[in-house]
Amino acid sequence: MGGGYYEGDIAERLRSSTTDDQIFRSQGMGARNAIDPTLNIKGKTRECRDSGEHPRTTPIVVAMDFTLSRGDDAKVVFSKVPMFFGQIKLRQYAAGPEICWVGIGDATSDKAPIQVAQFESDNKLDDWLAKMWLEGGGGGTGQESYELAAYVGAYKMELDAVTRGEKGFWFFLGDEGFYPRLSKEQVRKYIGDDLPEDLDSAVVFRELQKKFHVFFIYPRKPWTERKSDIDAEMRDRLELAGGRFLDVDIRASLRWDTYDDLDLHCIVPGGGEIFYSNNTVRKGKLDVDRNAGRKETRKPVENIRWAKGDAPKGKYKVFVRNFAFHEDNPRPIPFILELEVNGKIEKFEGVASPKGETSEKSDVTCFEFNYDPNQRTVSQDETDLYRGYDDTLIRSQWESVLPKENILMIDDPRSIVDTMLGAIALVSGSSIDEYLGDMESRGQTSQRREDTTQALSGLAEQRSTQSVDLGNLPKADSKQVKKRAKIKRL
């Protein structure tokens, strides 16, 4: 794909006349509830081809985490696309840049864990980015499906640059780890390839690096703040409706996104059942019941919980029933059920009434489990449950598959694009001092330059001590002399 040229002045006028949030809403990003079909990679490939217009292309992939913890980064990137693309061209950091946006979620819980645009070099870049769905999900485990995106880059992208013996650039933007194994079922479901077995994710990342210089840009964030982001949607709905989220032995919370009346049921030890007309059994309580009998909200939630110390020992069964359709056009109802037991949280993603069923025929069993109030141990305290969000552990996992200098830690998410540009500049032959001079010339603050310097320090040191074959890097035409004097500020 690709062709044409990015007109930065047009893009800047678009951004100056309205806010990024307005652009996203008007073009669909953040307002849709399903993946745009053109971003569905299943059964497809993406191509970055040379042409008469662009005889030497450099593929650049920006793969963004669209879960709750990092979804807003896409808006930061959107606001800076003119600067990003314009600086690559003006500073000649890379020849013939072609950019592909990739959206990443969690294939264990999200509807759209992988979204892949086409490679473009003109203003269609804005259109593709605006088509992305900020699903805002995530599985709450400290891991997202980065390995699924890596598989797309390694096996489903055809790049003329690689044929010439060059590499493109791949940037993961996120703050979590990846799953150690790439599921063959997920590859079949979302990409359409049949694998004989699950793959070691390290193998997939190794293949990706044969085609791209791969970086992970990691905004630092305390694990407590990450936990808050992951829990935010369910918690916000519950607390707005008056439900109990904290200090529980057991909590089953249901959310969906229609006016329809889904009901949450729980069979408790001894055979009693908690539901809308029997809301308290053995100290367990249904404390929120939305859309009961009327079109109340398209952000409904229901909640059954036992306060800490109240849940009886024994077997539990949690299921969802569609009591009634309330939408004008009844259709299957996707839902998420979050179960917390002794501090451990699990999620179930299901669909109610796939064939239009209601009442008992629509029942979907989500969890069956045995509860023992003595099961909670030191290893299950809150800090341990969310240990997957620890900076040290996340960085260590990424360093097992990428060079440590390619893990770019930043303090301010607004430094994302500056850091991407710096990585491209350094790999393509610029020094860190030259790049910082470029940042200063376009008016970046000393704080932003310091954040970027810290992120790129390892890469800068590695590049300065390495013998670089500039003829094998995706730089601009060698006949052109890079002008580092006065370049107009974007």
Describe the overall structure.
This protein has about 500 residues and is of the alpha/beta class. The protein has two domains: about 10-220 and about 390-470, Rossmann fold; about 235-370, Lipoxygenase-1 (Sandwich). The chain has 14 helices and 22 strands. It has helices spanning about 10-15, 20-25, 75-90, 125-130, 145-155, 160-165, 185-190, 200-210, 225-240, 380-385, 390-400, 415-425, 430-440, 445-465, and strands at about 45-50, 60-65, 95-105, 115, 145, 155-160, 170-175, 175-180, 180, 200, 210-220, 250-255, 260-265, 275, 280, 285-290, 300-305, 315-325, 335-340, 345-350, 365-370, 405-410. A six-stranded mixed sheet has the order 4-3-2-7-11-22, sandwiched between helices. The protein has a six-stranded antiparallel sheet with strand order 15-16-17-12-19-20, covered by helices on one side. Strand 13 and strand 14 form a beta hairpin. The chain is elongated and about 70 Å long. The protein starts with 7 loop residues before the first helix and ends in a 25-residue tail after the last helix.
What are the salient characteristics of this protein?
disordered C terminus; single chain; six-stranded mixed beta sheet; Rossmann fold; 490 residues; six-stranded antiparallel beta sheet; Lipoxygenase-1; 14 helices; alpha/beta; 22 strands
Please mark out the parts with pLDDT under 50 across 5 or more consecutive residues, or reply none: 10-15, 17-31, 377-386, 467-471, 475-490
Q: Span from first to last CA?
A: 26 Å
Radius of gyration: 25 Å
Strand content: 15-25%
**Strands ordered across the widest β-sheet:** 4-3-2-7-11-22
Number of strands: 22
CATH architecture of the largest domain: 3-Layer(aba) Sandwich
Helix content: 25-40%
Supply the number of structural domains: 2
Shape: elongated
CATH top level class name of the largest domain: Alpha Beta
CATH superfamily of the largest domain: von Willebrand factor, type A domain
In the CATH hierarchy, the third-tier topology of the largest domain is known as Rossmann fold
Continuous helix count: 14
Helix-strand makeup class: alpha/beta
Mean pLDDT: 84
The largest β sheet comes out as:
6 strands, mixed
